[in-house]
Design a protein that fits this description.
The structure holds two protein chains of two kinds.
Chain A lengths: L7 E2 L10 E12 L1 E13 L4 E5 L6 H8 L7 E6 L2 E2 L5 H11 E4 L11 H10 L5 H14 L15 H13 L5 E5 L7 H18 L2 E5 L3 H6 L2 E6 L2 E7 L3
Parallel strand pairs in A: 1-3, 4-9, 4-10, 7-8, 8-9
Antiparallel strand pairs in A: 2-3, 2-5, 5-6, 10-11
Chain B lengths: L1 H11 L1 H26 L4 H10 L3 E4 L20 E4 L9 H4 L2 H4 L2 E4 L9 H8 L5 E19 L5 E14 L12 H4 E4 L9 E5 L16 E11 L5 E19 L2 E9 L2 E8 L4 E5 H11 L11 E6 L5 H11 L4 E4 H10 L29 H25 L2 H9 L4 H37 L4 H36 L2 H7 L1
Parallel strand pairs in B: 5-12, 7-9
Antiparallel strand pairs in B: 1-13, 1-14, 2-3, 4-5, 4-8, 4-13, 6-9, 7-12, 8-9, 10-11
The chains are: A alpha/beta, B alpha+beta.
Amino acid sequence: MSSRQPVTDLTPSAEAEPILRTVNLSKSYFLGETIYAVNDVSLAIEPKEFVVIVGPSGCGKTTLLSLLGGLDRPNSGEVLLEGQSYSRLSENGLAQLRRNHIGFVFQFFNLISHLSAMENVMLPMRFGRQPRRVIRDRAGELLDMVGLSQRANHLPLQMSGGEQQRVAIARALANSPAVILADEPTGNLDSKTKTEMAELFLRLNEDFAQTFVVVSHDEGFSRYAHRVIHMQDGQLAKVEAGGR
Amino acid sequence: MFLSLGLTNVRRNLGRSMLAVIGAALAAMIMTSIIALSGGYPALGYAEARAFLGADILVFATPHLVAPGALAQVAGSDQPWSLVALSRDQYCDLHDLHPELYGQGFLAQGGVAARPIDLVKLRARLAGSRFVDDVSAAYFLPVRIQFSVPTEGGGSREVVLNEMILRGRDFGFRSGDGHWSFERLMVDGFVPAGCGDACALLDARLVNLGYPNLPALGDQIRLFVPALSLDDTGRVHLDYSRESEFQLTLAGRYEVQTNLVAWPTELGTMLEELYWTTPQIQVPAEFFSQVFSQASGGRHLLPPAMQVGVTVSPFSEVENIAAELRTLLPEYTVISVPAQLNLAHGRGLPEAVFQAPLEYLGVPTTQQVGMHVDLSQVFIVLVCLIAALLLAANMLFLVAQRRREIGVLKAIGARSGDIGLMILTEALTLNLLGTLAGFALIRIFATWTLLSNRIPLAEIGRATLTDLGLVVTAAASAAAVFGLIPAWQMARLTSMEVLRNE
């Protein structure tokens, strides 16, 4: 365990109610010895904010993201979404939270391979009770928003990496989540597509006030971020303003 | 939603679905085969003998048949043993199966008088056994018959057949039960209009016993029955000096093929079909009752049962039930028809052999038959376990391939229960398809065999539905259990655990 004092990032405003907040969050694994993937991290994400988390491989970025998204449970500390703590939520409660309030974008897209682009986008909405026609209309709008309306009936394998990732973004937006958590969303894309993807994130943030927390090695994202958080050894090493 | 998602998954992953269906079909084929075997679709010989005898197990109102060497095994009794021979007056099917008992006799314990069986009491005692379908009495009386046969000149002459046996039996006129019906037994003839009809069946192969002339179907037969009386023990005494006469119509002919013997010759393989030919003239139990009453001068309405048949279902339970009956009814002789036929085949009995060298029938033996132990249940369990393992592997494969998908579904908000439902839908759908395919494939062959054995269509249909229910239930249960266990384990993992390992 590092002896360095953790950076507590509750900026930019301690008075405004953050949309997502962690308090002394820690997650450790026992691999012969106890390894802290996330160590005593406190941070706050404001509504409409675009935050990028950077850091070397193994520094705990993805673990932090999974804790923020309720995909994993911390050993200690708390995560609060719109003031509500995850800690008392059951597995089903966490599932419901992920379904209604959080969108995920993964490095490897993680689309369901035998479902079309339209069906993949419809999937999170189908967990709810909306009529199928409403769901289909909404999915169509989202695909249009990411510029893929003409590819709605294609299967993931019939699409390029960039197109697949755009479908994944549309899926993440399906239930109008409070925040989208993206884990290396451009890690599997070529440089041209990376730029397009970063610009798509920016457009969604600017036009639709969508909050983003993006884990990325890609410098391109930092240009569009409000804040860039540097992680090292499971802790917040440095917080600096992004390119906006 | 997850139901339809499960069905979509089945449709869209055709390769994986086909693989799962084939696996399920294989399991269903295994289960269908073993159920068919265990349910007992008897081979031609046994099926015919079973129909002829009307039972799987015969209970005789004679003392125990005991080989001398086995005396020590019959413990707990101080009754003296004596050598007795079968009486021709007390004809029963044992006469055909063990003709040597006429001459050699057998050791009997206690009083040698045959004790009639109280059918009502016996039925009550067996009422609790779920494998016993029916308990019915078979009645026998020595008779002679007379009928006319046409001559070459256009006239007719009278033929008398002595030493015939009148067998009264329940032909199963009960509606819906075609098992022991006239149609089941007959090779030709017609179905009489009612139970009380004075109609009869004759063995079509009586020529084998030296009776070349037989009446034609629909001909009248004169039946002569000796006067009879019952003593205090229920034993029937016959007076051949006084006879009663009855008129019968020949409704049909039956034959009981029991074996097919093949032996090599210089000209190639020779075949001989063996038949159990009996001098029995079979009449409905109701008519037999009338005959008995009239022959006894109206003094006895209900003849005492000297032989009772017990029908058992499924076939694999025959030996178990026979063993239970031996314990339950120590005062009677209980034999299982399959066991006796096995023995009889080994000795060239009861069918007459005309051509086949005797060595091709097996080694003749006079030893008491060893008790047959039914191991079918063990095999059924083992084979069903193998089928279940196949289904388990199938389901594990189905779920293991879905780790990433399950992780993604969890990440975007699916609950564990939803995922379980989705997997279950897929598992059950694929297994149902596979099970139906496998069942149909095997069943086509089984139905062909059953039809070849002259099993009635209604009975085949009934057996098919029963077996289908069993196979589908077993396969669905196995699919549900073995599909849900890995799905539940997978659903318990957090999305991160799944996605990280992918």
